[in-house]
Amino acid sequence: xxxxxxxxxxxxxxxxxxxxxxxxxxxxxxxxxxxxxxxxxxxxxxxxxxxxxxxxxxxxxxxxxxxxxxxxxxxxxxxxxxxxxxxxxxxxxxxxxxxxxxxxxx
Length: 106
Prior knowledge:
It is a single chain. The chain is an alpha+beta fold. It has one domain (24-100): Nuclear Transport Factor 2, Chain: A (Roll), CATH 3.10.450. Helices cover 26% and strands 40% of the residues. The chain has a 4-stranded antiparallel sheet with strand order 1-2-3-4. A hairpin with a 2-residue loop joins strand 1 and strand 2. The N and C termini lie far apart (69 Å).
């Protein structure tokens, strides 16, 4: 019995066990959308307000600080819809909304 346990331990420590390739989930898509958008428009991303899987990849809504102001509640933000393919490469982006930080949704 001890021999069986040591044989199993040796097999598992040699790396013969195959792990499935990592899937690119919503967290990866959100990070990729933020990075790509920041690089293109040179405004910092504030966060992700929506994400959904589509037939050809991902659609991510990224909120961006466009015009910082003092006080901060008067800063202008914008929401961009960023479309990514299945490999999380940028396909397109569109600004869908612009608003003051302190403004409530209608």
